[in-house]
Write a structure and sequence with these properties.
Length: about 270
């Protein structure tokens, strides 16, 4: 499916303005995370303290640091991997895609999940989890559920809860953002964090994808798997519930007549 030409109606708007507009229209954040847009590049964060808490996953060893990659979750055929190219702590990060300047256009719908080691939250005190996210995805200003990025907490003894979900908003405008979540509703509980990206369909996937770095998890005990000990067997990747597009949105997308803007230019960092 070829991508529609730049809408003349919107061609006068900057990429940043388009993304901000779409984020308001299309983004859904259940838990109202604190979002901070950072200047890029960002100075190196604290090196990974795998035997300490809070644990910072920096992925700079070139390994998953105990996270499980499941590229068969959701639509499957996913592209999660630890790569260099963009990071907030040099020089590696968890990436969905094929590297800087690449795309996640595999010719098919694709998706996958990365899941943290199990950790136990403290019973009280500060319980803020944070992570750095750089996204370059499609921008579709209608409704629908394409190119869905989701962060979920998976408590060991309770139901999964969506912390954050955003879709077809164009991404973060070429910079890393910090997302912060208060995990105090799960104080004292053991849990994992699942990060999922799913294109849902094969259209408009010529974008670089997602970079995740410096995932900081507060914990009262080191995560299982941290420091190379006690690695869990690979668990099936979590697939979050996705919003359902209307029949009208599906029709507009088939026709390529939605107010889609092809963001073909490369990101600025
Ligand atoms: Ca890093
Ligand atoms: Ca797409």
């Amino acid at each position: 499916m070829s991508e529609p030409a730049l809408s003349s109606e919107r061609s006068g708007l900057s990429r940043r303005a388009l993304i901000q507009r779409a984020a308001v229209a299309g983004g859904v954040a259940w838990s109202t995370p604190v979002v901070t847009t950072l200047a890029q590049p960002v100075a190196a964060a604290t090196p990974s303290g795998l035997s300490n808490c809070p644990t910072i996953y920096c992925f700079d060893t070139g390994t998953t640091e105990g996270w499980t990659i499941d590229n068969s979750a959701g639509s499957g055929g996913g592209l999660w991997n630890v790569r260099s190219g963009r990071s907030t702590s040099p020089s590696m990060a968890m990436h969905y895609g094929t590297g800087v300047g690449g795309t996640y256009n595999t010719g098919a719908a694709n998706g996958g999940t990365v899941t943290s080691p199990t950790f136990t939250l403290p019973g009280s005190g500060p319980m803020t989890m944070s992570l750095r996210v750089w996204r370059d995805i499609e921008l579709w200003t209608g409704n629908g559920n394409w190119d869905v990025f989701t962060i979920t907490i998976l408590p060991t003894a309770a139901a999964a809860s969506t912390l954050y979900q955003v879709f077809h908003d164009g991404g973060t405008g070429g910079v890393f953002q910090t997302l912060s979540f208060d995990l105090s509703p799960w104080a004292g509980q053991s849990a994992q964090i699942a990060i999922t990206f799913d294109t849902v369909d094969s259209a408009y996937n010529d974008f670089e994808g997602i970079w995740i770095d410096d995932v900081t998890i507060p914990c009262s005990s080191p995560p299982v798997g941290a420091g190379g000990a006690g690695l869990r067997a690979a668990a099936p990747g979590y697939s979050p519930p996705l919003p359902t597009p209307s029949a009208d949105e599906l029709r507009k997308r088939r026709l390529g007549s939605g107010s889609f803007t092809a963001l073909a230019e490369s990101a600025d960092s």
